[in-house]
Design brief:
By secondary structure, this protein is α+β, with helices and mostly antiparallel strands. The chain has two domains: 175 residues, no CATH class; 90 residues, no CATH class. Helix content is 31%, strand content 22%. The strands form four sheets. Strands 1, 2, 3, 4, 5, 6, 7 and 8 form an eight-stranded antiparallel sheet that branches. Strand 10 and strand 11 form a beta hairpin. The chain is elongated, with a radius of gyration of 23 Å. The N terminus is likely disordered.
C-alpha cells in the first residue's frame, strides 16, 4: 500500500465536481464523478445494477474532507444487486483515524461498527478511506471477537491490504494503536493465516493413490488425502492428509483435472511448496491450517448468502442520488 501524499495528477478531477471514481474491474481507468453520479441517479429510478468502485477525493481542509468522504462513499457504493443489497453503515457516522506502516486509515469507530452489527445480525458494508481512497468493506461479525472483512470493489492488492487493516482495528485490544504494531508484511501474513483458517473442503478424484483434494483459493492453500492401504500381512494403514501453502490455482487445477493426478502432483507440487499442518473440523468438514492464530473459522450455521434477498434496495440508491445531486449543484 502506497503511503505517498495525495497526488491530484494521478486522480484528475472531472468537470462535474472534485471527485473521480475508479471502477473495480478497470483500475487503470478514471471515470468522471458526474458520469458516476448520473448512473446512480438513473439506478434510483430504474433499479439497474451499479457495480462498486473506489473513489478518490481532495483532502484539503477538514470540512471539505468530511464532506468529500461522504460524497465519495456515495459514489463508490454498490447499488441494486439482483440478490438485494447488503445493509450499509452510513457515511455520516463519525470516523476515527488509525495510522501505521500502510498509511492513514479512516473508518467508523469499532464501537459504532459493533453496534451496527448487533442490530443487523448479518453481513454489512462499511465505508473507509485509506490514504484518501474511499471504498466499502464487507464485514461480518464472528465468534470470540473475530471478524471477516472483504473489499467490495475487487481484490486488488491495495484493497486487500485495506481490508486486513480494517480487520486488525476491529480485532485489536487497543484499536487506536492497532496499525502501529503491524507492517504491510505482517498484515498480509495475518490475512493468509485467516484464509487458511477457513479451510478447504475436499472432493474425491480418480487416482491410484490420492483419495481426495481441496483448495482454498483466496489463501492458496491446498489439502490432499491419500488412500488407505493394507500391508501384505493385512494391517490397515489409514490415508494421511497433507497441506501445502502458496499453491497457484493453475497448479492445483492441473493436478485435480489430470488423468494421472499423482504424476502432476509429483511434478508441480511435491517439494515445490511449503508444507502446512492441517486438521479437519468435525462440524463443517473443512480441512484448515493449525498455524492460524485465530483458530478455525467454522461455517456451520453461517449463511453464505447474506444479501437481503427480496428487500427494496432502491432506497439506498435514492439516498446516494439525493446526496450526489446536491454535490453537483454545488460544483
Amino acid at each position: 500500500m502506497s503511503t505517498q501524499p495525495y497526488d491530484e495528477t494521478k486522480h484528475p478531477r472531472g468537470p462535474g465536481g472534485k471527485w473521480a471514481t475508479k471502477p473495480a474491474s478497470e483500475s487503470d481507468v478514471v471515470l468522471d464523478a458526474g458520469v458516476r453520479a448520473s448512473e446512480i441517479d438513473d439506478a434510483a429510478s430504474t433499479g439497474v445494477y451499479v457495480e462498486p468502485a473506489t473513489a478518490t477525493f481532495d483532502l484539503t481542509g477538514r470540512n471539505r474532507e468530511v464532506e468529500g468522504f461522504r460524497d465519495a462513499a456515495a459514489l463508490a457504493g454498490e447499488y441494486n444487486h439482483p440478490g438485494g443489497d447488503y445493509p450499509k453503515l452510513s457515511g455520516q457516522t463519525p470516523r476515527r483515524t488509525y495510522t501505521g506502516a500502510t498509511g492513514r486509515l479512516k473508518m467508523p469507530s469499532r464501537a459504532a461498527i459493533t453496534r451496527f452489527g448487533q442490530a443487523q445480525h448479518e453481513t454489512f458494508d462499511v465505508p473507509v478511506s485509506m490514504n484518501g481512497d474511499v471504498s466499502w468493506m464487507r464485514v461480518t461479525p464472528g465468534k470470540r471477537g473475530v471478524w471477516e472483512v472483504e473489499p467490495v470493489a475487487g481484490h486488488d492488492p491495495e484493497q486487500v491490504a485495506t481490508a486486513e487493516a480494517v480487520c486488525a482495528v476491529l480485532e485489536a485490544r487497543r484499536p487506536t494503536t492497532a496499525l502501529s504494531r503491524h507492517s504491510a508484511a505482517t498484515l498480509m501474513r495475518r490475512r493468509r493465516e485467516r484464509l487458511e483458517a477457513r479451510g478447504a473442503r475436499q472432493h474425491d478424484i480418480a487416482s491410484s493413490w490420492i483419495r481426495s483434494t481441496g483448495y482454498q483459493e483466496q489463501g492458496r492453500m491446498m489439502v490432499m488425502r491419500t488412500k488407505d492401504t493394507w500391508t501384505k500381512g493385512g494391517e490397515h494403514r489409514p490415508g494421511r492428509v497433507y497441506g501445502f501453502r502458496d499453491v497457484p490455482s493453475n497448479h492445483y487445477s492441473a493436478m485435480a483435472k489430470a488423468d494421472r493426478p499423482g504424476a502432476v502432483f509429483n511434478d508441480l507440487i511435491k517439494g515445490q511448496h511449503q508444507r502446512v499442518a492441517v486438521d479437519q473440523c468435525g462440524s463443517c468438514g473443512a480441512y484448515y491450517s493449525t498455524d492460524a492464530a485465530t483458530g478455525h473459522t467454522c461455517t456451520t450455521g453461517v449463511s453464505t448468502t447474506a444479501r437481503r434477498g427480496g428487500s427494496d434496495s432502491r432506497g439506498t440508491a435514492q439516498e446516494a442520488s439525493n446526496r450526489l445531486r446536491r454535490l453537483l449543484t454545488r460544483a
